[in-house]
């Protein structure tokens, strides 16, 4: 089994910052892509940012310039630095990892941005 455990969510005022972290453990094969997704109430889960094992990144347009994804391949961790947060960033954020053995998800961490 593979476990992904997120941390770092919380309540912040608009314009503030949060840093999310995710650690993979268990039967880890080579991790290809890692990423962050989010799901707001009543909406579908959407991609926030992804990063390959080589460090190539991809962001949804609405977070470009505000969010930064990074990973530590040796520690099997991925982080998301979120700056200039907006109320529309409020959602449950999920960590994901793509491995040869399958795609895995964390349990999610709540991010709430107050106006």
Descriptive report:
With 115 residues, the protein is mainly beta. The chain has no helices and 11 strands. Strands 2, 4, 5, 6, 9, 10 and 11 form a 7-stranded mixed beta sheet that branches. A 4-stranded antiparallel beta sheet has the order 1-3-8-7, with no helix packed on it. It starts with a strand and ends with a strand.
Keywords:
115 residues; mainly beta; 7-stranded mixed sheet; 4-stranded antiparallel sheet; 11 strands; globular
List the SSEs and their pairings.
Elements: E1 2-7, E2 10-13, E3 18-26, E4 31-39, E5 46-51, E6 57-59, E7 67-72, E8 77-82, E9 91-99, E10 102-105, E11 109-114
Parallel strand pairs: 2-11
Antiparallel strand pairs: 1-3, 3-8, 4-5, 4-9, 5-6, 7-8, 9-10, 9-11
The stretches of 5 or more residues where confidence is low (pLDDT under 50) are none
Please bin the fraction of helical residues.
under 10%
Order of helices and strands: EEEEEEEEEEE
Computed Rg: 13 Å
Count of DSSP H/I helices:
0
Characterize the overall form: globular
Mean pLDDT: 95
Let me know the number of strands: 11
Structural classification: mainly beta
Instruction: Give the distance, in angstroms, between the N- and C-terminal Cα atoms.
Output: 40 Å
Largest sheet: 7 strands, mixed
β-strand percent reads over 45%
